[in-house]
Write a structure and sequence with these properties.
Blueprint: H1 51-54, H2 56-68, E1 74-75, E2 99-101, E3 104-107
Antiparallel strand pairs: 1-2, 2-3
Length: 109
């Protein structure tokens, strides 16, 4: 799945679709990835006008859910952490509210 700003690519026996949000590509395989769309109306108490802060509550919700399963996770509270690959591959960077376990991104927002 390509991010909203990525150029089209030739398919290599992999169907290619584009999502309306996000920047980097995500490989989506059946039964290997959980994809969730979260919609929050502007009047909701969790609503934030600041895009960076808007993911904090959702990151915390994922940390709490993983913690209930015995997984020690944390959510990123800061600016984007970008590697040389983060513009091409979603999970190569860590954005605000995204969740990591032992330094590896496990929930992208």
């Amino acid at each position: 799945m390509l991010g909203s700003t990525q150029p089209a690519v030739a398919e290599h026996d992999v169907p290619v679709v584009r999502r309306r949000t996000g920047g980097g590509a995500v490989l989506v395989r059946p039964r290997e990835l959980l994809w969730v769309d979260v919609l929050l109306p502007a009047g909701d108490p969790l609503w934030e006008d600041d895009v960076g802060r808007s993911f904090h509550w959702l990151g915390q919700a994922w940390v709490d859910a993983l913690g209930a399963l015995g997984v020690n996770a944390s959510w990123h509270d800061g600016p984007m952490v970008c590697t040389p690959w983060c513009r091409q591959i979603c999970f190569a960077g860590i954005g605000s509210g995204e969740v990591t376990v032992e330094g590896r991104k496990v929930v992208g927002l």
